[in-house]
């Protein structure tokens, strides 16, 4: 990991870059100044330099900002906008050593983590958030939406401890990772105390409203309360929805109806949607159609859902991953995200969206050439749109937040996962992980 001064974006100039979200075959020249893309053109149309700079390979470049400006030849490598991971649990990450889960079930994970919540200090939670966000940054993620536990049942001090830790961490991560905070409101119908706490959260600077209403006894009522709060404070909604093998779990129907009623199209996201995969195709198609018409987005979490779901099955075993292809075909924007990382909900993971894209390909049977392009969009453009990110992408005038990978096309990226990643935020290098491989010569 390397970096330069936060207030000193570099003048960047690349040639022979692959921009697969623009074209799968063409090569491009890009220039950035003061943290913004100023020129992006096809290689054949590149304007000639009046006084050509020295050209170096990416592997030879100086990332400290101390050298004279150079032209960096990417030699066909892909340059992608910074990955956007829109469903993580940074506050829980790396807690597996303290919070176990012998059964591996969702229910035990919820119970065990909830029981340990009062013991975690603000400093400990903050450190987990920062450590995990910076690890994700090293893999190319420059935007994160994290869902935050809000244990109001233990009292206000404990509940707000996580929020305060997250607010401080978000501030300290500025210039490296842009973090959105979505508190998970208490399950079940919220009374005066819960509604007052939610109002206080919004005033503290939370970016939206989250929760898992499907786990409560009155999910429809709680969803209605969340929409009322969102309307009052002008915040987007991102709810865990129907994370269950039970095909009767259909709280996303309520979400779709209220999205249409409130005119919230494009401002509501449903995560998980496991029950869609458990119900008959015709019934699932009807619900997916409602989501598409209302403008409800979706997030698939293949790592955690394949690990948690189907545990009561004796065969055939359900995979737990939602109907990704059907959602996409219906016009529902679907992002792929990390969810839990090394905690009782999911003991694995590293915050690498390329790995998540590969798991999505396996779980959703996405292996065709067109699918590779879709998978790239599911970790870049689609979550960026669902998160409402401004000036995102590789366009002139957009922020120069990007990751360069050691692959020349999408299939190669998901096959090899590119252990080398070069990451920049606002036009300055913030992380470089470059693999050096050596093989002994033949005898």
UniProtKB/TrEMBL annotation:
InterPro entries named in the record: Amidohydro_3, Metal-dep_hydrolase_composite, Metal_Hydrolase, Metallo-hydrolase_Enzymes
Keyword Phosphoprotein: no
Hydrolase recorded as keyword: yes
Database matches in SUPFAM superfamilies: Composite domain of metallo-dependent hydrolases, Metallo-dependent hydrolases
Protein name, entry field: Amidohydrolase
Example GO molecular function: metal ion binding
Residues annotated as domain Amidohydrolase: 71-110, 115-408
Naturally occurring in which organism (per UniProt): Paenibacillus thalictri
Keyword list, A-Z: Hydrolase, Metal-binding
